[in-house]
Give the backbone structure.
Amino acid sequence: MRVTDQMIFERAATSAGSARARAQKASQEVSSGMRVQHPWDAPAAAGQLVRSQLNQARMTTIASTASQAMDELDAADTALDGVQNAVIRARELAMQLASGTYNAQDRANAAQEVDGLFKQSVALLNSDVGGRFIFGGRADGAPPFDPVGAYSGDSGIRQVETAPGVTTQASVQADVAVKGVGGGVDVLQTLASLRTALQVNDVPGIQASLTGLSTGVTQLSTARTQAGNGSSLLQLASNVARIAVLQEQTQASHLGDADILDATSRLAMAQRVLEATLTASATTFKGTLLDHLR
Amino acid sequence: MASAQDLAASFNRTAASIESARGGLDANLAGRALEANDLSANVARLNMEIRTARANGSEPNDLMDARTVARDALAALTGAQPVPDGAGNISMVLPGGAALVTGDRSARLDTLPDPLNRGHTIVRLDGTAGSPPVALAAAQLGGSMRGDLDARDGALKTALDQVDQLAFDLGNALNAVHRSGVGADGSTGSDLFTIAATAAGAASTIQVSAAVAANPQSLAASTVAAGLPGGGDNAQRLIDVESASLSNGRNASATLGALVSGYGSETRSARATSDADTLLAQNVQSLREAASGVSIDDELIDLTRSQRAYEAALKVITTADEMMDSLLRLRG
């Protein structure tokens, strides 16, 4: 086959261009640390990367939401603990002042303490986290208990996503735990009744409040247990979601990140090929009869 | 609200980027059409000049070389094939059969917006014989112009159509859930997004509904009015739309992944085809060069051989002259 000068020059240009492109690609891979820079670098991996990134975002949101809900449940547990302690103290006072050894003045003094416990309980039950009144159900934009203990919240239960498509209860139902809806006692009303009985020196009334107070303690204890369980579940969900995010990141890294050792090796080889191509081209350019007929 | 606006803006940006790439190919087509017109006119003019030169008894090698260069460039641009005639002309015929150059006359390629293809350029042939302009389909062209058309209306259009469909399906699915919910202001039945009536162009026009954007309280986070203001169950249903099946049977995440993979595969396949065609073109060019190109070594060898023959002939003449001279001296 005849090899013309144009063929030699065009072959040199094509070979050098191709070698330079390979060196450039390897160089980009090494400098960016990414194997998949464009969808056409690895189409299947690029598609998986997109799904992985979306999964990461979803799981990050789940972890964050579960963590926030856990904070609210922990705050609810703390508040219920305070209310429970107040009711236990009120029960102690009731048991103590139901006996005949105390007089009306003693009971009036105790009524003041119970009034303080009542107000303290109302304040605790109006706790908010980030502006959300955690005992209001879905009516969480305003304090759910008024100064006399009337409830303006609702029976809504906050649901939080703990895994894609899976939700769990993430709030305490104050209408059940405090107001006794569904067969319990109205804790605040019981405290108010005790306070009134103490104020008017009504010993039978004081004795009558004991049962309600005991039921209230149990009721609050049950609510605290539910809050604790919910918090644990949310903690677990948050941890699992964070692990899932790490797994997605690892998978994305496997799919899209460059193997630096491999990429560096390919860069060195591409540079060597480029140098060899340029040297070979330069040598070919010299090898004509013109160089020998002078 | 911010997420909804981000989603709409992402669709808008993606559609704009793809449309921008398609617009860039339109600009390429317009430039290539002008270049092709110059080359066609050149080939036609050179046909005439070569014919004239031959009629005057000379062999116009320079003009033929110039015509070959113009012919190759025109073929690379448009895919037109050279067809020689008995008179020494070269006509250039497009893959669809339309003639770009016939003898000493050339046709013109025009580009103009096509309303049926979002205003993208259509290529039209203004014929050589007074015939009305004819729109050329991609299959009736070749070379770089065909490549531009294929890229614009192939991989890029497919990607844009898929993004449009995703925006349309996802936006409507979110709207359906949003309409069934209740906002903190008590409003209900409102769309979250304003979307085109059909999928065509949905990605470029999708916006958060003006009413919701102006009044974030109308974002329907609750399923029932009684759940206000803290109910977030409808917001959760909005999130769940991400996992719901769209019109193609896949969810949004899988659709996006398939879209990216499909675009990558198509681009990769086009690159592989381009690389293979480049190699094929190089091989054909090498064969042509081997047959008709100039090798300096060959020419030098021929030149040296001719010089040697010339020197030998001179030597014969010189020797004969010397012999004749000797004979004449002997007689004298």
Remarks:
- Chain A has two domains: 5-33+258-293, 68-241.
- Chain A is about 70% helix and 5% strand.
- The mean pLDDT of chain A is 91.
